[in-house]
Specification:
The complex is a heterodimer of chains A (114) and B (113).
Chain A (H helix, E strand, L loop, with lengths): L3 E4 L2 E5 L4 E7 L6 E7 L6 E7 L4 E4 L2 E6 L4 E6 L8 E7 L10 E2 L3 E6 L1
Parallel strand pairs in A: 2-11
Antiparallel strand pairs in A: 1-3, 3-8, 4-5, 4-9, 6-7, 7-8, 9-10, 9-11
Chain B lengths: L4 E3 L2 E4 L5 E6 L6 E7 L6 E7 L2 E5 L6 E5 L5 E5 L8 E8 L8 E2 L3 E5 L1
Parallel strand pairs in B: 2-11
Antiparallel strand pairs in B: 1-3, 3-8, 4-5, 4-9, 5-6, 7-8, 9-10, 9-11
Classes of the chains: A mainly beta (114), B mainly beta (113).
């Protein structure tokens, strides 16, 4: 089955700096890669996603890149703010039809210091 | 538009007991997936329901079972609870046509003593 590795497990940056979180996946048939943000005690929130037919996607300060050959994808957050502090999870799916099972990484605790 | 809701928020059970968790999907969503999130870990896929039928299952034993109702709400049942079942149980709903975008509920925190 699919295996998703996520690094680093913790990341501390100064406000205004950039943050990068990287994930690798094992199943070459995976075609959907979402990123979720989970604040303490709250639900995971979908913040950005990318399909396998796209190499990069950007939404304001957040961007995701995908390298299908190397089977890795990354989350980039620019101009970080204290409210970006949370646990971030990457996930991968080889879904078809209505079955899009998500396999998650173990998460990255991002701390943005004011 | 109503988001995904779950009940109860938290509960405590004793080893060997049975538990039922409930999920109401987001308005218009007909696909529900259940995940188990242990402390400090990413969510793990339990199973998915689509049009009232199980549509994929993760590596969980048969004592984890579920249902989906005609209004697309869903239940997760766990029999013979074990200490390791203590976790946050999340459900996520999605539109049939966009089943890849899954939106999570707030979760049910289950503690087994």
């Amino acid at each position: 089955g699919e295996n998703v590795e996520q690094h680093p497990s913790t990341l501390s940056v100064q406000e205004g700096d950039s943050a990068v979180i990287k994930c690798t996946y094992s199943d070459s048939a995976s075609n959907y890669f979402p990123w979720y943000k989970q604040e303490l005690g709250k639900r995971p929130q979908l913040i950005i996603d990318i399909r396998s037919n796209v190499g990069e996607k950007k939404d304001q300060r957040i961007a995701v890149t995908l390298n299908k050959t190397a089977k890795h994808f990354s989350l980039h957050i620019t101009e970080t703010q204290p409210e970006d502090s949370a646990v971030y999870f990457c996930a991968a799916s080889r879904g078809e039809g209505s079955n899009y099972k998500l396999t998650f990484g173990k998460g990255t605790l991002l701390t943005v210091n004011p | 538009e109503t988001g995904v809701t779950q009940s109860p928020t938290h509960l405590i059970k004793t080893r060997g007991q049975q538990v039922t968790l409930r999920c109401s999907s987001q308005s218009g969503h007909n696909t529900v997936s259940w995940y188990q999130q242990a402390l400090g870990q990413g969510p793990q896929f339990i199973f998915q329901y689509y049009r009232e039928e199980e549509n994929g299952r993760g590596n969980f034993p048969p004592r984890f079972s579920g249902l989906q109702f005609p209004n697309y709400s869903s239940e997760l049942n766990v029999n013979a609870l074990e200490l390791d079942d203590s976790a946050l149980y999340l459900c996520a709903s999605s539109l049939e046509r966009q089943a890849y975008e899954q939106y999570f509920g707030p979760g049910t925190r289950l503690t087994v003593t």
